[in-house]
Design goal:
Blueprint (H helix, E strand, L loop, with lengths): L1 H12 L21 E6 L6 E7 L3 E8 L7 E2 L3 E3 L5 E5 L7 E10 L6 E2 L3 E4 L8 E6 L13 H14 L3 E4 L7 H6 L4 H19 L4 E3 L19 H12 L10 E2 L14 E5 L2 E5 L26 H10 L1 H13 L14 H13 L4 E5 L17 H4 L9 H4 L7 H7 L4 E4 L5 E6 L2 E5 L20 E3 L3 E7 L4 E7 L15 E7 L18
Parallel strand pairs: 10-11, 11-12, 15-16, 16-17, 17-19
Antiparallel strand pairs: 1-2, 2-6, 3-4, 3-5, 3-7, 7-8, 7-9, 10-21, 13-14, 14-15, 18-19, 18-20, 21-22, 22-23
Helix pairs in contact: 1-2, 2-4, 4-5, 6-7
Bound molecules: fe (ii) ion.
Length: about 525
């Protein structure tokens, strides 16, 4: 079954024309690349369903609160071939499960055809138990090295079985760097990369809203903007927001309200509450004037950056230690970079502080591609730059470099009771803790080499290799994180059981640091 699905998807995945070429739908739960439906931005009263079809069709959505009984429907509208169309379902009841079905009719057809029946849920009330899922970098462009489509489908099937309320992608899912290297600057080429993922993500996304986190290889980044409508940042920004219905401020969501010329709202940072949890997605790439990690088309650094503690120790010990830190940075090709230039930006930081301070949720989950968007490691780099306040030599320069900010980002997470900070980027499972905040690095969903990449950058914590995803179950009293492994039949063996749990842990609601202790320190100037 899986192999058959892989063949169906892969032929469009790597053809470079996934959107334009009509292909037969499986008519089953399989990832029919010719047609996909992706849920997004659910609220207490509404949800959005994005429909993508390889052929132009007339379509509507019918829905209701009883399985198989669709008592309401949207107006019919035309869905043009290769262009996602969003159906907004409003006037819904809070904390309610809905069942829905998309109906389509191509030119020349008399009757509408029913697509897969699916479901969604409106905002949970406090006290309700629910689950959400998280995957690390999928990297479809690294076929065979870090990505296998059959394994990806395996992971998608595990997630779909869980029926989580949300599924987070931690970034590096839509690399456009080969297009940049080849100078292939066209919206259709970028769109095809985003459409590729829909064949796989549709397996989950038809019944689970997807939440994208921006990664470095997306190159959806401010430093590439040049004032024109035709640059890679604009093309990526438009594809992200057109192919995935991401949240913008309104309803239960807050977030980035600043439109960008030629794109509109970026929908790159956003937050909302659901049950007893606050979810916060943040992004440095759209807010830094420089390339945060790798510049477009170049390789990302493979070595870990100096940890703040090591840097501090060396700086205190002797000058040569500082030089060692600089040499390490130089080896990464970052020696001349001022990493204070990497930033969430003023507006996002102030929004993040307000969001975390004001929320009374028992659990607070924060998502970003990586600490400050670059480097390797988790808590090892959490003391650096605007995340931790210290420079590479261990000197605290926070209030010199960020004079209007309350405190470094890690301190903000600590003092507002953040439960777990989720990141991708390093391509392994790593659970660490710093000052009561869990730093959870997320595994790749489809790495056929089953490697713990960049493990040398992690000096503590629970480390496990790829592949799989995280299932998080939130109850009123606790949140349980489970690392669910994925294996193809040929990969299975002792200790390698598809669907097994490699690691799990339970966290309790955190008490934020009392106000007396969370006063901002006196600026050091
Ligand atoms: Fe990555």
């Amino acid at each position: 079954m899986v192999k058959w699905l892989v063949a169906l998807v892969a032929c469009s995945l790597f053809s470079g024309s996934a959107v334009a070429q009509p292909r037969p739908s499986t008519g089953s739960a399989g990832p029919a690349s010719a047609f996909s439906q992706i849920l997004g931005r659910p609220t207490d009263r509404a949800v959005t369903i994005s429909v993508l079809s390889a052929a132009t069709v007339d379509a509507f959505v019918e829905y209701g609160t009883t399985r198989g009984s669709y008592t309401k429907k949207t107006p019919v509208r035309t869905v043009n071939a290769g262009t996602p169309a969003e159906f907004e379902l409003g006037d819904l009841s809070p904390s309610t499960a809905y069942f829905y079905r998309v109906q389509t009719k191509a030119a020349g057809e008399v009757e509408f055809t029913s697509r897969d029946a699916a479901y969604f849920r409106t905002q949970r009330k406090q006290g309700e138990t629910f689950t959400f899922g998280v995957q690390g970098d999928s990297h479809p462009e690294r076929l065979g090295k870090m990505y296998d489509p059959e394994l990806y489908i395996q992971t998608m099937q595990h997630v779909a079985k869980d029926a989580p309320d949300f599924y987070f992608l931690m970034g590096d899912d839509f690399s456009i760097e080969r297009l940049i290297e080849r100078g292939n600057k066209s919206q259709s080429a970028v769109d095809a990369i985003y459409a590729h993922q829909r064949g796989f993500l549709g397996l989950v996304g038809k019944s689970t809203p997807l939440m994208l986190v921006n990664g470095n290889h997306e190159q959806a980044a401010k430093y590439l903007l040049d004032g024109t409508a035709n640059n890679f940042a604009v093309l990526a920004g438009k594809a992200r927001t057109n192919f995935f219905p991401l949240p913008a401020p309104g309803g239960i969501y807050s977030g980035n309200a600043e439109p960008v010329e030629h794109i509109g709202l970026l929908r790159d940072y956003y937050a909302w509450e659901w049950g007893d949890a606050l979810f916060v997605v943040i992004d440095p790439y759209w807010h830094s004037d420089v390339a945060v990690d790798n510049e477009a088309g170049t390789r990302a650094p493979q070595q870990p950056v100096e940890s703040n503690r090591d840097a501090k120790r060396r700086a205190r010990g002797n000058d040569a230690g500082g030089n060692q830190a600089e040499q390490l940075a130089n080896r990464q090709g970052k020696g001349n970079r001022d990493l204070w230039q990497i930033t969430l930006g003023e507006a996002q930081y102030q929004w993040l502080g307000k969001t975390l301070h004001e929320s009374k949720a028992k659990f607070k989950f924060v998502f970003s591609h990586h600490v400050s968007g670059t480097g390797r490691g988790g808590v090892e780099v959490a003391g650096l730059y605007e995340w931790g306040g210290e420079d590479r030599r261990g000197v605290d320069r926070f209030f010199q470099m960020r004079p209007k900010w309350e405190k470094p980002i890690h301190d903000l997470l600590r003092d507002t009771g953040v439960t777990i900070f989720f990141q991708g980027h390093d391509h392994l499972y790593a659970r660490q803790e710093l000052d009561g905040v869990i730093y959870q690095t997320c595994p790749n969903p489809a790495d056929p080499t089953f490697t713990a990449f960049n493990a040398q950058a992690y000096k503590s914590g629970d480390i496990f290799p790829n592949s799989g995803y995280l299932r998080v179950t939130v109850t009123p009293d606790s949140a349980k994180v489970e690392y669910v492994r994925s294996f193809r039949p040929q990969d299975e063996g002792e200790g390698k059981t598809n669907g097994s749990i490699a690691h799990s842990y339970v966290v309790k609601p955190r008490e934020p640091t009392p106000p007396a202790q969370s006063k901002p320190p006196e600026p050091k100037r």
